[in-house]
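Please go through this chain and its backbone structure tokens and walk me through the local backbone shapes. Keep your notes short.
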Amino acid sequence: MIRAVLFGVIFCLTLPGRYAMAVEEPAFKTILHEGGFEVRDYPALVVAEVTVTGGQKEAAGKGFRLLAHYIFGGNKQSQKIAMTAPVVQESTGEKIPMTAPVTQTKKSEAWVVRFIMPPGSSLDGLPIPNDPRVELRALAPARFAVLRFSGLAQEDDVAAKTAELMKLVSAHRLNSTGMPSLAQYNPPWTLWFLRRNEVMVPVDR
């Protein structure tokens, strides 16, 4: 059985050559804004995703390559699809209690890595992947609590910011409904103090 990891990861990997950094992000409505803390409503989204195993970084690399191949023409129609930010990586397994947003030892690891499809995409309108490991899915509208921070987003930083986010969620009497995630919106060569990171967790509406 796959053991759950206590936070998922949303980030962009090194994008050499044609893998240019995406500039478009999913639209959302800000419900609450207090400094670096926000509550946002995201609309329904269509994603391409793969499930891969390995450590966090290894799985991200595997998933990214599979999905990048799909959007750069690895599909039945040989159609290129615009890339959006961020790339989404989250662990599979059991739901994690709100009181324990830290990493844990795992017997095995499995990750779902997602690319969000461009606005206006539909399951019927997207090209069929050549690789059966790539699945197209529709995600329902969702509300997220988000905490923004800068820096390199090292593992200890992420754990600390996740704990801070969960305290804010509790203080605002929100109920988490899924696993916290890390979002990174800049390519790796961005100076550390210019990087935009976010930890986010789905909450009840």
